């Protein structure tokens, strides 16, 4: 009996290892959602936003070469705007290699979107070396950093909040910078925990940080979400008071270089005008 239990234990461990390897290294799943904004002109063409977060460039699971392949996949979607909600890099102790700012940012310089690419920083970006990362980002004209600031991207008014997890967010400054802008209103933030403070006139909030648990139980739920709201805003699409939050599982890993029962993902959000 004991021998059978030991064999069964080894089989379960082996299957779990194979599953974790697949979940960690598979190509990102393209998740899709459509949002209607009354701020877009009636009869205008819908706009698409490709949303990336938690890239966590580091060995062994997210070398720059893998990010280059993901960039090609995102470009093939032909988005109007690309939004990145922080944690470009990881400095985790379990990493087999820590890459330079240039190695982290260079693949992102190849992103292609008609209106541009906006980046809001995350906690790992600050812990790693945000000044060095932002200096590298500034070398690429297609990349725009928004940290407690906002900018006009065609018919989209986009605000970027600095990282709330490390207490660097200034929502008053972010929403104040958005006030004079026009069009559909979008906030990019690393942590979803600011969502209750987002004004109701903001159509869409894009967040990451939770990794959708990264390692979750087969029956649902996870040991940790890294959110003060637990599972409430931890993964997927949420609608409250006429505003929408998308929390993505992201692309890379944090702390441990594995995923289990979650998958890397890129969201493609369609912003639609109101019906005529």
Percent of residues in β-strands? 15-25%
Shape: globular
CATH class categorisation: Alpha Beta
Largest sheet: 6 strands, mixed
Oligomer state of the chains in this structure? single chain
How do the strands of the widest beta sheet line up side by side?
Answer: 1-12-2-3-4-5
CATH topology: Purple Acid Phosphatase, chain A, domain 2
The CATH superfamily is Metallo-dependent phosphatases
Report a brief summary of the structure.
This protein is of the alpha/beta class and 276 residues long. Helix content is 23%, strand content 22%. The chain has one domain: Purple Acid Phosphatase, chain A, domain 2 (4-Layer Sandwich), CATH 3.60.21.
Question: What can you see in these coordinates?
Answer:
The chain contains six helices and twelve strands. It starts with a helix and ends with a strand. The protein is globular. 23% of the residues lie in helices and 22% in strands. The mean pLDDT is 94. With 276 residues, the protein is an alpha/beta fold. The strands form two sheets. A six-stranded mixed β-sheet has the order 1-12-2-3-4-5, with no helix packed on it. It has a six-stranded mixed β-sheet with strand order 6-7-8-9-11-10, with helices on one face. It has one domain: Purple Acid Phosphatase, chain A, domain 2 (4-Layer Sandwich). The longest helix is centred in the N-terminal third of the chain and has 24 residues, at 2-25.
SSE topology:
Elements: H1 2-25, E1 29-36, E2 47-52, H2 64-75, E3 81-84, H3 101-105, E4 116-119, H4 123-128, H5 130-137, E5 143-145, E6 149-153, E7 156-160, H6 171-178, E8 184-188, E9 204-207, E10 236-240, E11 243-247, E12 265-272
Parallel strand pairs: 1-12, 2-3, 3-4, 4-5, 7-8, 8-9, 9-11
Antiparallel strand pairs: 2-12, 6-7, 10-11
């Amino acid at each position: 009996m004991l021998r059978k239990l030991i064999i069964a234990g080894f089989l379960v461990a082996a299957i779990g290892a194979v599953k974790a390897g697949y979940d960690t290294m598979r190509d990102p799943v393209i998740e899709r959602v459509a949002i209607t904004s009354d701020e877009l002109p009636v009869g205008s063409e819908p706009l698409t936003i490709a949303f990336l977060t938690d890239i966590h460039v580091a060995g062994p699971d997210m070398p720059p070469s893998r990010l280059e392949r993901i960039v090609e996949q995102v470009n093939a979607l032909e988005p109007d705007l690309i939004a990145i909600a922080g944690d470009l890099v990881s400095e985790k102790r379990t990493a087999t290699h820590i890459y330079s700012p240039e190695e982290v940012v260079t693949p992102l310089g190849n992103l292609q979107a008609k209106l541009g690419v906006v980046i809001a920083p995350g906690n790992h970006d600050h812990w790693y070396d945000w000044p060095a990362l932002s200096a590298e980002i500034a070398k690429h004209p297609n990349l725009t950093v928004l940290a407690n600031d906002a900018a006009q991207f065609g018919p989209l008014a986009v605000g970027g909040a600095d990282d709330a997890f490390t207490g660097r967010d200034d929502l008053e400054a972010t929403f104040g910078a958005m006030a004079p802008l026009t069009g559909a209103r979008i906030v990019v933030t690393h942590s979803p925990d600011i969502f209750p403070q987002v004004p109701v006139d903001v159509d869409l909030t894009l967040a990451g940080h939770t990794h959708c648990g990264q390692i979750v139980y087969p029956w649902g739920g996870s040991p940790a979400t890294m959110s003060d709201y637990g599972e409430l805003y931890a993964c997927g699409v949420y609608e409250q008071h006429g505003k929408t939050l998308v929390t993505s599982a992201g692309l890379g890993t944090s702390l441990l270089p594995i995923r289990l029962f979650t998958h890397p993902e890129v969201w493609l959000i369609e912003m639609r005008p109101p019906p005529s």
